Batch of 2 targets.
Target 1
Amino acid sequence: MGLRRLSTSDEQDLVVIGGGPGGYVAAIKAAQLGMKVTCVEGRGALGGTCLNVGCIPSKALLQSSHKFWEAKKHFAKHGIITGEVSVDVEKMLEQKQNAVTGLTKGIELLFKKNKVSYSKGWGKILNPNTVEVALSEGGTTAIPARRILIATGSEVTPIPGVAIDEEKIVSSTGALEIKEVPEKMVVIGGGYIGLEMGSVWGRLGSQVTVVEFLDKIVPTMDSEIRRAFQRSLEKQGMKFMLKTKVTDSEMADGKVKLTVEPSQGGDSTELEADIVLVSAGRRPYTAGLGLEEVGVKANERGVIQVDENFQTNVPGIYAIGDCIPGPMLAHKAEEDGVAAVEIMNGQAGHVNYNTVPGIVYTWPEVAMVGKTEDELKEQKIKYKVGKFPFMANSRARAVEDTEGMVKFVSDAATDKILGAHIMGPNAGELIHECVMGMEYGASTEDIARTCHGHPTLSEAVKEAAMATYSKPIHS
Amino acid sequence: MSSLPPHTMLNMPALSPTMEQGSLATWHVKEGDEVAAGDVLADIETDKAVLGFENQEEGFVAKLLVKGGAKDIPVGTPVAILVENVEDVTKFETYEPEAASPSAQSQPAVDSAPQPPKVVPPTPRASSIQDFQGMKIGPAAKKLILEHGLSASVIPSTGPRGMVTKGDVLLAVSKGAGKVAEPATPAPRKEAPPRQTVTETSKQGKETHVEGVPFMDTPTTQVRRIIASRLLESKTTIPALYVSADADVDAVSLMRASLKRQGTRVSVNDFVVKAVALALKDVPRANAFWDQAREDAVHSSGVDVSIAVATDSGLLTPIIRDADKKGLLEISAEARQLAQRARENKLKPEEFQGGSFTISNLGMFGIDEFSAIINPPQGCIMAVGGSQQEVFLEGGEPRVKDRMRVTISADHRVFDGDVASQFLNTFCSYFNNPVKLIV
């Protein structure tokens, strides 16, 4: 069911607006399925938020700061004697930038290899069959398209009273470019982005305070894991002000003064910081696309509405990723992209949103898939629960990295895994065994009866599974 | 139904010796289609394989009585109706099948001989470790299936991509599918409790093996269960008369050697088959069985000799039909083929259903003599031992000969001493003088 037609050489089978993880993956997949594809991106580099100012640079800095922390706090115990360990922030940022540039260039190569046309500029939908591009080099061009895929992603949600200048008051973008370790940093928003960025600079020496509107950080996390997680971050020096909101900000003597008060209202106090990070959420980015004129429906928060085929209310216009409902995660956007393109080509594309993992790349890492124990309680679903601490895992003990645990929740009658939650070293890798299991409707007993290498951290996953349907051996 | 035109009812066929039920996986015809002999009407799925349901007669498909994909249809259940004339097809539009009756009018595969005895609710063969090869199934489900002696193929799967999950097996167990607790099943173990309390971890109860005695449980197979019940029925309901006779093997040995020199291999048993066949023809009263319904001995219509073949799944008895009319070499070739296919479980129904007389030969295992159990619904079975060297006196002089003892177990309601003796004497007369078998 190919979509090539004997038409003018200009006409594209698909034009993808946005070259982030959702967009570029969709474009490459479409080309692989035989479609004539153009991807429109105005940033000057492919990879979207993720590669340029999100996932990738943050993981680079997290790793660098983690190494520093290890050197400073743990090397001596391992018998490694250093002198005073210090940080060269410029060098750190350079390493990060090299990683980013390498990857974004890599995507350009992938485009060439798969014959995806790359149009450098900002796209706008004139009608369901035409995308107008304001070219970066100047001028405009109109690309005829049989189908259009919106993959423009998301942007930082601003907070009234705290205007972002990316110098002193930064979003995650600016937080990745801070030139020297701030003495005091306030993070507004206790979600995973704020906590990760807070971790980076906290490890490098900042005094970090997290201000969160709700009574909990990372609201989607299992509450038991979350409590342990917060304790861990506090041990690393992070301070938390929960149920607090920021109402105003002003600059004074090169520092930022924030006015904060309880979320429900009350007396206000002042916080001072060298750098303030605004990380209170993200919202779909669809400015300049011309959606209203074309008639594409979005809800009041700007989230584009799509059906199970990723098609908007306008036939021929599709949307994926952060600008449609669902978790705002790069891997979810990639899954969306592949599924949407497969469906366009008559294949059975499908995204299983129940098995999209969520990972927080602090240290210890936290990873989760499926339902939390709280959700099951709320939904009155009968469940079994099993836990296993890394303190009892041989590998973790051998390398002295024992903070955290693995937790499973499974159906009380069938033992089918309903959720898996891991806090600990490499949680972000360990979770995938659980994701795979859930994809196959596995029970915790299945994981328990699968051989796990020794000595690995994965054995904690096995033992937690055993603890769920039966008993663990090692605790 | 007198208002319906003449039609042929097609029933779920028994496509293997042990098949009790099958699934009609896919229909290859639809109502109104013209069909010829040899057309494959549907794919029938058993727990072992998918086989084609071959049409036997020309006609038109008037009605399909079960949907494609219908599972667990007992053998003998009507599944379709054929008519001779295309105009009659529409007359079956509103036809409703009666309650399933196993009587088959048009199954050429089923003889007039009565059906094999009904076994208590049939379950497909319990799965063994080897059966799981290539199946999408996790270790927890496998363990439960083995413990409860279930068959993985009949457990409804609700897992993604068709997987049988632990929950699916637990459900099947709780519905009593695990009640395969006949004497032949593995040593009983305590079932794992299917539910557990919310915060406690569960205890899996499992009986330990008998102290100090290592053993391996091999789940019994469907074939063995059927054989077991038939043997019991035979032994307890048929009054058997046991009569032995010694046959001379020397002449047969000479003839075999001579045939071998010409490049043809014929076994002693092939000679036995032919001798039995001719003896049955000469002594028709021996080619009979007891019909309980009529309370009388009934003659078998042909001389169809069953040969007992030992296979991994049990003893099977393929039939050489009209053995009296076939030559020795023809019988030899057919016996070999049937035995091979019996071992591969590839016998067609007409190849093992029926027969008038069975021969069971343990000679090659070094057995001198034995008495076999009659193979219902037949009237007699001959147990053949191995050849023994014997010294006897002839005219006062010691002579050596090879003798073979055969023992018949005969239904005494059909065979009295007179018939039994006559039959055996005739048999020996043919066997001792094998030239008679060739002419």
Note: Residues 357-469 of chain A form a domain with the Enolase-like; domain 1 fold (CATH 3.30.390.30).
Target 2
Amino acid sequence: MMTKRRELDHGLEELNELIIDMGRRVETALKQSIEALEKVDAESATRLIREDKELNKIEEKISEIGSRLIATQQPVAKDLRRILVAFKIASDLERMGDLAVDVAKVVIRLEGQALIKPLIDLPRMAQIVQMMTYESIQSYVQENVNMAYKMAKDDDLVDALYAQIIRELLTIMMEDPRTISQANLLSFVGRYIERFADHATNIGESVVYLVTGSRPDLNA
Amino acid sequence: MQTTAAQTLIDIRKLNLYYGNFHALKSVTMDIPEKAITAFIGPSGCGKSTLLRTLNRMNDMIPGTRIDGTITIGGADIYSKEVDVETLRKKVGMVFQQPNPFPKSIYDNVAYGPRLHGTHSKSKLDELVETSLRQAALWDEVKDHLKRSALSLSGGQQQRLCIARAIAVGPDVLLMDEATSALDPISTLKIEELAQELKDKYTIVMVTHNMHQAARVSNQTVFFLNGEVVEFSDTEKLFSNPRDQRTEDYISGRFG
């Protein structure tokens, strides 16, 4: 009796693999964007921006496969949730890719400048968010609700680091107004990474919905 | 097991049914709400049609059938000795898989039941035929050819005629046993739409092999397996987030 699900199972597996692929790419993009920032490496930043197009293509592919499965296979219950969740996670991952691009754009604007301070908290924050991203995709792969909840807790840490970064940058700007333009850009980066973490948390929510059928608010 | 606050019309308690040695229904208990559509789903041989047929005692005609437990409709035990089966079937109408109009005119098909139950006034019959055909969403298509043979109608029209015939005797309950499985998709949609309208007046219980039909049309869905009720839930819940893994496996096409 398995034959009648072949098309559906195959499609769901494809969606799964695409999500995992997107997750891996997004995680790398975040890591590389911060590395490019630390070295003010505009070349790497430009490459990152180019590579983001691939993420958009994968998201479109997920959308196509999902719509085809809904139209031809009439999925219900968990099968349907798998597809809905694939749409949602793909859209979160695509946004995360855009945020890495935003960081890369800051790097390009900083080209030729020395950093006003060595970066400490931003890379630390990015490291936590990179871990959150990894765990959000792992919780999806393993359908592990506990892992999703645990991952979402780290968002508090990220928010605290963000607040600290803003405080520090404000002090620097008050001390020397010539730093304002760069400090402003660095505070944007903080904001981008903070948003990145929110999307990881959204992925955790999608995992809980996939497994339990109910919608939690992990941002609360 | 009941999920909505609606009034129960059909109350089934610990119902067991045996065909000879075969235990076809195993301690089935459920409350079927009035003026709503309840769908029975499950793989072939799970007991869903058997249960449907107990509701107007169609199984009485099958030799070797044994039954225990109780079924009450509107508070009255339909298996008590005083029950007149003809009267029961007037209250509990049935529509079958294959449209089965009588080889008579459209008019006579609808008037058949009322005449049998003692209505002979021409004006009264005219009125009954019209209201029944209207309720069955067939009137506009046939009002100019009421004397034409029912067999000249299309399959979908014949099925709606059978619904009109069932309605004409003033039932409380309509049983639909795979009532659309012999029809094309358009006729099927018409019957489904009709069922939606009829549920305001009647309590509808349908057996369907088409899970998506149950999902589209019914308010409650009951999933049967091997003669047992596995799950009785609001349809929306059953198809989006079923309680029981066996329900999930069945509606997702993992077996059956």
Note: The first strand of chain B starts at residue 8 and ends at 19.
